Amino acid sequence: MAGIRASLDLAQVGCEVTLVDRAPAPGGVVAKLDRQFPNDHCGMCRMLPEVGVLQSSRTCLRKGLFHDRVDVHRRTSVVGVRGEPGAFEVDLAHPGPFVDTSRCGDCPGPCVDVCPVTIPEDFNHGLTRCKAIRRPGPLGLADTLDIDDAACTRCGACVDACPVGAIDLTAKPSTFTVDVDAVILAVGTSMHEPQGDPSLAFLSSSPNVMTALQFERLLGLSGPRRTQLLRPSDRSPVKHVGWLQCVGSRDRKHGRDFCSSICCMFALKQARLVRDIEKGAVEATIFFMDIRGTGRSFDDNRREALSKGVRLIRSRIHDMAPTAEGGIRIRAFDASSGRMIHPTVDLLVLSTGQAPQQGVQGLGNLFGFALGPDGYPSTLPFDKVKSPSPGVFLCGSATGPADISESIVSASAAASEACKLLMALGRNLGTPPPASRKGKAREPGGLLVLFCRCHLDPEGRNEPSCASQPSVEIHTVESPCLPSGAAQVRTLLGDATRDRVVFAACRTHASRRRLSSLADQEGFDPALIRVVDARQSILPLRMAVAELQTIEIPRKEKADPAPPAQPRALVVGGGPAGMRAALSLAQWDVTVDLVEIEDELGGTLAKHPSVLFGKDEVRVLVSSLRNQITTSSRIRVHLATRVVSSTVKPGGRDTLLRTKSGADLLVSHGATLLTTGGHGARTASYGYGTCDRILTQTEFEPRLQEAGLEAPHTVVMIQCVDSRVSDDHAYCSRICCPRALENAKRLQSLYPGIRIVVLYRDMMACGSWEHEYTAARRSGVLFIPYEVTDKPTVLISEGKPVVTTRDPVLRSLLQVKADWLVLSTAIEPSDSAAELARIFGVERDRTGFFREADSKWRPVELTQDGVYAAGTGHTPQPLREVLAQAEAAAQRTFEHLGRAMVGDDSSRIHTAAAVHHALCARCGQCVDACVFHARRLDEAGRRIVVDPLACRLCGACAVACPNGAARLGVMGERQVMAQLDAALEGALQASLDDISSGWGRTA
Amino acid sequence: MRERPGEPLAAAVDAGYEPCLSCHACRSVCPMQGATSRLTPLKIVRIAALGILEPLLRSKDIWYCLQCNRCATHCPAAVRPAALIRRLRDQAIIMGYVDEATLEKFELLRARFQRARWHMVAGLLRGESLNASDWRSLSEAPIPALADAVTLGESDGLAWNLSSCMTCGACTTVCPITHDRAVYDPVLLFRMVNLGQQQLLLRSPSIWLCLGCERCTEACSQGIAGHLVIRELRDRSVAGKHAPPDMHERLEQIDRLLFPAYVEQIDRLFSRAPGSAL
Fold first, then answer.
1. What pLDDT digit, counting tens, does each position of A301-356 carry?
2. How big is chain B by its Cα radius of gyration, in Å?
3. Pairing of strands A755-760, A782-785
């Protein structure tokens, strides 16, 4: 998934991408997840570029990845690499191209029916069986048929069955070499295999025990489950599902002293889905140590699961036994009664952790990077995606356990680094200008139909006589998806005298982009190109013909120009995120206005370099960023300045800045990046303010750094102060637990023998922070969990705080006299966030942080087109993540500016909605109705204008307009009606035709 | 799962019960054997090795075992009779030879047995004379809580390599004598040490209940040797004169008094099982 994101990012800015996947289909682990928190959808397609809605193949990404500039090699692995950045030669190996993907196509797959070999299906982790020739996943399109090399007996039945001779079982393993400028490794993660784990004993062979991914398939809509949840052993209904957390993670004894980061959220989601699917009739119990889920929305996941009746039991389970009824008896401790309990579950889900990808060591040897203590590749400290070898980048869960949004962010960051390298090498980037169109005069209203005769259908089909009208010219093309056919298409299009074209093709998800770009290059207006699937029925062709015939070329609207946007960006917030993003944009020749409300650059971090990030390294980083900014000719820095207002104009915005001294400056820019940070929240809890020995973590750190505490004996830290409660800071601030761990470490090194007590709710030591947590415990730091319903209390005695808390194991109160009480308060977004949100028309969620367009798939885009966010103002996160996110946001900004720069030339305006000004009453209802903020009243208030880049042609304006003044260009009422008429008229005729000509399979 | 009955036994084979040398080491260390002569791990290993499973699965013998694992720790051929017995029990449950109600009563019986042991040890620590005649009252008598509210004390956790405990409770779920936190709960004992409350423990009968099976150590993801912590607590208890120096001999006396009563209860509970005599 990270690989797909990085490929799309690079392709969108004009790079040619070779995407290599060892698996039979790209998509990785995420392709197996049918539902994700928070909306329980897949959502993967939200990654797809939104530009050129009419022309592009916006198909389900789980069906396949189709992009002109992305060349996908399945079942291919990297076996060698030579060269240097700008001139890498990468050797790739393929076990044998058994299925010729250019010939194999949209057919019922007789090869699958005749295959005599049945094997456990990889995609469903062995829950189902499939043939040795099969689609890699249930959603993959037919052209991804694939043969399992190891299972295939070479019997040849499929070869004989294939109607187009696409299968060759004698194909030998082959190697080939590609020349590339840069390499991105997004090799993903492998999941811990619980087989052979002694603590699971008999369970490893029980069919009622499955890994979280297997269960995900069972729960999923595309999985093997058809009805209610049944126990695999005897198909009896499941009544109770249990989850065991931390299987293969947080296990120092077995060398896995890290947290897999995602399993808790996974289990909560699954448990909630189980409660939902079976309407609460199935019990769901999660046995956990800490429920870890960092970030803004993840605490919602837990709350939602609890509200659905999911039971959480804090216990690591090691004792399980089978029952006579086929269930699994778990020995667990019930904290409330103080006795052992023996719940019986029908299904046991092992939340197996992420592990380094197999073969990553080999890649390390090839590409020159070492593996860290956990077996993950080490990257540079402030460059999460940079490997020590130049030109080699890493992203996704290849560098450590990562969730979806983190992977997406690091993938965009890796794409950004690769782009910067390419720019430095002098390669041309940016969306390539549209190929020069032949300005040929074409007969308006004339229609060309190019009808595929396909090698997949050797019996041949007759041209649809029913479509023949004087104004329609029909040609048959032999297999335009093969190179010979493409040449014929080009010739036909070049010679055409008609101005609109319909391709009657097949597999339109794959062919649409290719065919329409052929027509585009030959000078056809994209609004007048249609690609329809005519293999199953002729109706789509009839409808497209009818629709195109109704389209009239509108008279040029004089005042609707869409001037190309300037390659200029406004970055608001001069902290590390803002500085990093500004520098990256400047490297792409984007002019940047960097606005900082304070008198100097650096943000909160420059003032308080937290211990967490290493004080000296942070100082070096901040000053290096500052130096680069001041020497960059493309960055204008506005210190002590704030944003006053901003107006949208076609292709960008005009934003008014005002300095502290009152001077105004108007800047125009094509994109906006909000990198406003955050700060520690104030509190009134735990006696804060009543005693000078009670400090927040932020206040405590400077004292700690200056070693200005006279040899304390005991320091108590309280985590989650006012955090993760439903009414206040309903989110996890993510950095507080690592920060407490680091500060504890620092205290211990300064004052040996010091007593440190950390009171926590869940220790959010995700990923490799688990090392620090373990190290802290081993060095004697005492961790005591508390419940939010039974919080610690603080009294002041002899000028010092005395903390009383309930130890859940002892079940009795524990009193600690502290020299210092340190409160870990939440991280809040900066005070200017609300105003900026209003000025730029973006939303904030209830936590006060900016709301992403999609929290998983579009993590740096905000709810307004062309506005992006990164850093703590987006989500509280460690510096490494902040910088990666800044890099990713810069990449998205650049991509946006790229498409804005190309512009949408006004002669081809029809792919956006338009306004019939004579009918328009300027009531503004369309402006309110447009969810993409593509419509507004112009400055003079005289007419409604449409931003063609923001418009998605959804039609909401046309519905809202009382006067019929909102025109949809190509998708208006007339076109829709014409299509309906054609469909209805055609239905009868088509079925008659089919009977007489034997044409089409289903009419 | 009923249709796949062989699996727990297959796992037992993995546990390696075939290389038995018939050296009788397991018999000589088995506390049940010592106190009642009713359980012979060697015999069970032999019968299993001969493949005569059915009578084994229906026998009462497999339910006598306390799962103290001493047989395995003393076996020179690395056979693990206690693990085999555990698998045989699992298998007997799968086969339906033992019903759910019996199993529940069995758990209850084990819990009461440990409670009785606690009271016997408590009496011993108080210097009272031992008497097993009132098993029923002992097994039902309440147990006072260890502490209501405590002040954080100086801890030996670091010295005992115990500080990395994250109170996940894996030790508790595997401990064969944990049924009731008040009687015995390893994670609680470890937590007390980490919170500097070890002085309370030195006077507690709980530390003398441990069978030394080492399952807590085996289960700990943080590599804490729980059984050694208990051993250390016992040594300190004796050194601090909280327990008599001949505590180990006295514990054996307790076993001799209590085990026959326990075995009698087991016999009664499983008497319905056919072919129970081996």
1. 898 999 999 999 988 888 888 888 888 999 998 877 778 889 999 999 999 988 89
2. 19
3. parallel
What does the radius of gyration of chain A's CA atoms come to, in whole angstroms? 31
Cross-chain CB nearest to A774 (options B11, B89, B164):
B164
pTM higher than 0.90, yes or no? Answer: no
As a three-state string, the secondary structure of chain B is: CCCCCCHHHHHHHHCCCCCCCCCCHHHHHCHHHHHHCCCCHHHHHHHHHCCCHHHHHHCCHHHHCCCCCHHHHHCCCCCCHHHHHHHHHHHHHHCCCCCHHHHHHHHHHHHHHHHHHHHHHHHHHCCCCCCCCCHHHHHHCCCCCCCCEEECCCCCCCCCCCCCCCCCCHHHHHCCCCCECCCCCHHHHHHHHHCCCHHHHHCCHHHHCCCCCCHHHHHCCCCCCHHHHHHHHHHHHHHCCCCCCCHHHHHHHHHHHHHHHHHHHHHHHHCCCCCCCC
- Chain B closest-CA separation from residue A813 CA (Å): 5
Task: Please tell me whether the peptide bond between A702 and the residue prior to it is cis, using omega within 30 degrees of 0.
Answer: no
List chain A residues with CB under 8 Å of B147.
Answer: 810, 812
User: Over the range B44-72, which residues count as b (16 or more CB within 10 Å of their CB) and which as e?
Assistant: bbebbbeeebeebbbbbbbbbbbbbbbbb
* Model pLDDT for residues A775-792, shown as the tens digit of each residue: 999 999 999 999 999 999
Contact B73, B214 (CB under 8 A): yes
- The kind and range of the H/E element at A183 are strand A183-185
* A252: closest chain B residue by CA: B222
Find chain A residues with C-beta within 8 A of B187's C-beta: 333, 809
The verdict on a CB contact (< 8 Å) between B191 and A810 is yes
Cβ contacts of B267 within 8 Å, gap of 6 or more: B60
Q: Tokens representing A524? A: 């056809």
Which of these, A115, A128, A112, lies nearest to A32 by C-alpha position? A128
Number of Cα atoms under 13 Å in the Cβ half of residue A176: 12
ipTM for this model: 0.90
